[in-house]
Amino acid sequence: MSPLHHSVRALALVAWTLFAPVWAAPIIVELSSEASRPAVNDQVRATVAAEATGTTPGELSRQVNSQISEALKIAKSYPAIRTQSGSTATYPVYAKGGKIESWRMRSELSLESGDAASVSELLGKLQVSLGVSSLLLQPSPETRKKVESEAMIDAIAAFKGRAKVIADALGMNYRIKQLSVSTSGRVVQPMFRGAAKTMAMDAAPMPLEAGESQVNATVSGQIELE
């Protein structure tokens, strides 16, 4: 290659370097926002159980099954309450010498409804012979979904507000580069006395206070400033 060609090539490289556009690396900012909304606990779930101790499994089975059958019969008078048979277990009780002393049986029945007043009344009747082993008040799936959507809208608005504050402070514009949304909630379980049975024979309704649960939404992501 002649010296002239070398000179032309060198001048071309210098010209491209001088006049080529300068690409600045974009500024990426990570940020997050949160929002929460209350959701009414409009669904009640309870588990009642029949327990007994006896000398033979057959004797126990008749006694416990009779209690559960009677409970189902009472529950049928409450059409707003869904009932479902739960777990049943029979196990031996051993004496000190390792010999079987007696047998114990436990059978559960699950209740679920959006009518807290009916559940309260039914539990009052069932507690005469059965124990309440669990009780949970929480938002129904429909209520939770609605409140989650509202919390997400609030969290996204907060995210955009924070992004604008940052962009304005730097005198720049922004665009959302990446975004992720998640939800969570905390259900407050009411206090009650385990599997204790009502000693009096009157069927007083079991006190229930529905209250509210908090539904939270979190938005995290990246914005690009330009």
- Compute the average pLDDT: 84
Task: Bin the strand percentage.
Answer: 35-45%
Oligomer: single chain
| Fraction in helix | 25-40%
Give the spatial strand order of the biggest sheet: 3-4-2-5
**How many domain units?**
2
- What's the CATH C level of the largest domain? Alpha Beta
CATH topology of the largest domain: the name is Alpha-Beta Plaits
Q: What is the H-and-E element order?
A: HEEHEEHEHEE
Rg, rounded, reads 33 Å
Q: Based on DSSP secondary structure assignment, what is the total number of beta strands? A: 7
Describe the sheet with the most strands. 4 strands, antiparallel
Flag low-confidence runs: 4-8, 10-20, 191-201
Shape: elongated
Q: Specify the structural class.
A: alpha+beta
